[in-house]
Each structure stands twice: as structure tokens, then as C-alpha cells.
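Retry 2 of 3 after timeout on previous attempt. Resubmitting C-alpha cells to design endpoint.
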């Protein structure tokens, strides 16, 4: 198999099998992967990105426009969405009855609290997480 220190492609590039990048990956336009994609470092796509299989990135994922993955996304660090992070599958209601739950607001700031980070209308970031400390799952929210 040929090995190259650098490859410059000024037109289109087609890879019929898996693409594995052991360092960082930067794409100045749009990128479409019809199978799996693995990037050991960080990945930046200036245009749209579409991955038909699974996407694994060891560092930071930054997509300036749309990033669509039909499989799973596994990021060892951070996924940043400038606008919105969406799950496109439709939720279904589990069988059985439900119990009324509450949302618990924690005014304290805990650095590094894992969860979904959303920007509030006040301009502050908030972390959403599931709190099961009382035995019953509740939605927890705190300032990031």
C-alpha cells in the first residue's frame, strides 16, 4: 500500500472503503462519507457533512453548517453545535402508566457537570441532566 506524507486534492476525492485519519481533519467544503469515518484528532468541516455509517472522533467536532450522521456519533471530547443538536428519530411512549415528575433547578454552579448544554434566553449556558438522587428520575437544570 502506498504511503504519502502529504496529499493535496484540488478536485473531488472518492474513497470506496473506510476513511481513517490518525491526526486532525479539516474540510473546506462539503463532505460525504458513505460508510464509517474515524478521526483520531479533531475534525472541522466548513460546509455540510453527511456520514451514512458511524462517526468516531477522538477530539473536537466542529461543523459550521449541517452534520448528518445516520449511525452513531462517538466523540471522546466535545461536540459543538452552533445552532442546534437534534435527534431525528421520533420518540415513542413506553407502555404502561406514567408518574408526574418535576424539574429540579440547582442554583449552584458545578464546573464539569456532564449533561446537555443549552443557551438560555438570558445568554447564560445551562446544563440539563437526569437527577436520580432521590430514587425517582427527575430532570435537573443548573447554570453551566
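Retry 2 succeeded. Sequence:
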Amino acid at each position: 500500500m502506498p504511503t504519502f506524507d502529504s496529499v493535496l486534492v484540488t478536485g473531488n476525492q472518492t474513497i470506496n472503503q473506510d476513511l481513517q485519519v490518525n491526526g486532525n481533519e479539516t474540510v473546506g467544503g462539503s463532505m460525504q462519507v458513505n460508510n464509517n469515518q474515524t478521526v483520531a484528532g479533531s475534525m472541522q468541516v466548513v460546509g455540510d457533512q453527511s456520514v451514512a455509517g458511524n462517526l468516531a472522533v477522538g477530539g473536537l467536532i466542529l461543523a459550521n453548517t449541517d452534520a448528518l450522521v445516520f449511525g452513531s456519533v462517538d466523540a471522546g471530547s466535545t461536540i459543538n453545535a452552533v445552532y442546534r443538536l437534534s435527534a431525528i428519530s421520533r420518540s415513542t411512549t413506553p407502555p404502561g402508566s406514567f408518574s408526574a415528575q418535576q424539574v429540579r433547578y440547582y442554583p449552584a454552579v458545578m464546573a464539569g457537570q456532564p449533561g446537555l448544554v443549552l443557551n438560555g434566553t438570558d445568554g447564560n449556558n445551562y446544563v440539563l441532566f437526569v437527577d436520580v438522587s432521590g430514587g425517582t428520575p427527575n430532570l435537573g437544570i443548573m447554570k453551566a
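Attempt log closed. The two ends are 48 Å apart (CA to CA).
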